């Protein structure tokens, strides 16, 4: 395809440039509207600048990919409601043999979960749990957060439903779920193990430090600095903000966060940590202790005979309660004739029925998800299989589906629609095709040098333009170049693109949405906040990405 007219090329570059800036830097000062609005803005400019017609813009939206994304989102929502990710989190701690064993488990569990439930979902639900486990065991959070982010990216490469770029590749190439899995799963497993080994080598010194040297004795109360967590105590899904508390309790909030195993230890440590310098502080402390003691008063219950009958005959026993604050007795009720009332039996029956219904519902969710995976392995249409599984789950829920559907990330679906239009408009300028013609003779996959050069191009573009636009720009061109060699080479080219574009997300913190999710979730975690910086990720991401990409390419190209 030759270059289009000068005006079309310039205006198309302007529209694509705006889209790229908004996608990579969603909070730019001059227009902090986010990725979704930036994607729609790029699509709108492509039509307004007459780079493409409105009909071409509608045709550019890939509905099978949108349907597959929607279906997997709904299934993931139901799996989260069914405590699937809670069980995965508990698996991380089950009979753990230390910090290194925990780090290895994080790598394996997050990789497998990402392959089945997408890397973004895995990072959303596991980040805070992993951070909490690390804090409670006085371990440095950084290696575990890096293990979650990098292993989720690597693991998501194994299946078409692991990440958005794989969805695009699976639909565009026509490769079945089973072929995709067989082609990349071995590379994924070796890549995860390699990444875990690099993590252990990189953080061996920190993971080998004894707990009492790392952050205090493990059995005592753990105190975190106030500046480490204060700014992250509020999230929309939790309780109210600190400012909503009573003024009398403000001093309690401003204290460092203390965890202990008993109430008495907590009170004693809290009193030790405070210095009372005035009479007003003393009075405030006394009021606080009185309120605490009042809330824990013991109610004395005694049984005495009723003396309303003078002879004491026929008298019935009644229960009297005596409170320490009032020092007076009040008749409550006659002693029940039997130890258990009918009301208690009914409550127990209701609780048992409720537990049974929840167990049956969870089992149905797991079976439907398993059926979806089996259908995908059988080669059925991926988009309609995911949509069918989602609709079956919604139907079996026997409630209004609005609450569940509100959790679907419609902003992501809209972002994809705008991105499809913008990238297709940029393709119509002829610039991507012209640039590819310069590189194509040297990046054919029938030679080791060609594979290496192609991997470098994909690696750079995935971090500059993001992995999904890179797949949209290079996919058909790489496949057409490989098809000239053989049909098997075409399929191999698609798998190489899937592997490199996914692992490339580990290079920098901005290379993958999963990285940003882990970073933001960790920063905003209540009581366990931690800031994973760009440079701390880069120092580990560069060697890990290069080594894992190279080893995986050797396995994928030999398929």
Brief characterization of the structure:
With 559 residues, the protein is mainly alpha-helical.
What key phrases describe this protein's structure?
559 residues; mainly alpha; two-stranded antiparallel ribbon; globular
Describe this structure in words.
With 559 residues, the chain is mainly α. The chain has helices at 6-24, 34-48, 54-60, 63-81, 84-93, 99-117, 119-136, 141-156, 164-173, 177-202, 204-207, 211-215, 226-229, 250-253, 263-273, 279-295, 342-377, 382-396, 402-405, 410-428, 431-439, 448-464, 467-483, 487-503, 513-523, 534-557, and strands at residues 222-224, 257-259, 300-305, 317-322, 329-334. The protein is globular.
Structural class: mainly alpha
Rg from alpha-carbon coordinates: 30 Å
Largest sheet: 3 strands, antiparallel
Trace the largest sheet across and list its strands: 3-4-5
Low-confidence stretches: 210-282, 284-335
- SS field, number of helical segments: 26
So what's the overall shape?
Answer: globular
Q: Termini separation (Å)?
A: 32 Å
- Amount of beta strand: under 5%
Blueprint of the fold:
Blueprint: H1 6-24, H2 34-48, H3 54-60, H4 63-81, H5 84-93, H6 99-117, H7 119-136, H8 141-156, H9 164-173, H10 177-202, H11 204-207, H12 211-215, E1 222-224, H13 226-229, H14 250-253, E2 257-259, H15 263-273, H16 279-295, E3 300-305, E4 317-322, E5 329-334, H17 342-377, H18 382-396, H19 402-405, H20 410-428, H21 431-439, H22 448-464, H23 467-483, H24 487-503, H25 513-523, H26 534-557
Antiparallel strand pairs: 1-2, 3-4, 4-5
Helix pairs in contact: 1-2, 1-20, 2-20, 3-20, 4-9, 4-18, 5-6, 5-7, 6-7, 6-8, 6-10, 7-8, 7-25, 8-10, 8-25, 9-23, 9-24, 10-26, 17-18, 22-23, 22-24, 23-24, 24-26
